[in-house]
Amino acid sequence: MQVRIRLLVCGWCAALLLPLTLRPQSWQEMTPASGTAPVPRRNAAAVYDTSGHRLIIFGGRTTAGDRNDVWALHLTTHTWTELTPATGPAPAPRFTANGVYDAAQQLMLIWSGQGTGFFNDVWAFDLKNYSWSQFTPPDPKPNVRYGTAAVFDPRRRELVTFAGFTDQGRLDDTWRFTPAENAWQQLAPVIHPEKRCLHTACYDSRDHRMLIYGGQTNGARGDIWAFDLNQNQWRDLTPATSPAGRWFAASIYDSRNHRVINFGGNLGTGQTNEIWAFALETGRWEQLPATGVAPASREGAAAIYLPEEDRMVIFGGRGGTTDFNDVWFLNDLSAATSVAQDGGTSTAPHSPRLLGNYPNPFNPETVIVYELPQPQAVTLEIYNALGQRTRRLLSQIAPAGQHRAPWDGKDERGREAAPGVYFCVLRSVKFSAARKMVLLE
Fold first, then answer.
1. pLDDT tens digits, residue range 363-403?
2. pTM for the whole thing?
3. Can you tell me the distance from the alpha carbon of 419 to that of 421, in angstroms, rounded to the nearest whole number?
4. What pairing do the DSSP bridges indicate for beta strands 183-187 and 169-178?
5. Which one, 98, 169, 297, 388, has the greatest CB density within 10 A?
């Protein structure tokens, strides 16, 4: 059986091209249901563990000194659990370490930072057995540094990092680390961002890019750049009009709306709790409004993005001279109303929504998330890039609400599907939508 995936995808994209005006997002402070919370801190490393639906944090700086502890916040039960191993090797205490997530191996990779000195070591924390292992790559490798930024390239399975600060000054170098080969590679793009530190990075899963924002170079920066992870080339995305520059902002890539969202940071004149969104399609910044009581102004907060819940999660940071260990949700990132032709607004119709899958890319398992406004008959199927059906996951009357459907990466006969591009397709009587998925080798 074949379907016109191209038409389904284009129809879904066309719906997104309707003129939209954002209505306020909403802040919600998350009160832990149980468990001792980590001590207040700033500049901790954080990743989203998609397999366990957990916020994982490592290290950071506290009023009592630097830390190397590991904590998990379960994002459904709102429960903190300390994962710090009682024995075995571990990274030295530090702050501003970069943390990236290898979903296929369920590892948190840590590199760089500052503690008793500057670091250039790379470690892996296994989120299955809660143990550390260190990589010992030969030269060449980056020199010791802190205040750098990094992402994980899920296609090449590499950590990619840019710039930072050391006792030799600020840097403007770009490196790749391949865990499987235990090797660093320095890249030499002709065009690249200016030297800096204290900037942020996030991974653009749609266009396979590393996006960096802001930082510090003799003052706060406000530029935004994209590094093409296929071509190893930089491109300046900075528009003519931008918000005030800042360092130690918390940044995420909002995959549902293809934009970067920044929270807080230090403006050079003080800390802020502003929320700004950079639309990657239009190249424009927009300050987002948000209802409810907002977090205090701060810098050095950690942030992750939950695409299936349409929210950003904020942890900790420093406001004035106070460190925090609070957790906040910025909800309804995609909330919008359609703009009528006469200039007025009307509420967009409430229809089923295919929110996508996580993790994405994945190997071999992923979870597809969809929402229904009322009970109705739906089918959810997987198709390959040729439009051939690989697997029917469900065909049933489903209740209203948000649903999660796992796919184990196998076809109808129980065979492992070949690596490549697939589409999950959700249909009801008057609705159809498709989302692209990438199954890794």
1. 888 889 888 888 999 999 999 988 899 999 999 999 988 78
2. 0.76
3. 7
4. antiparallel
5. 98
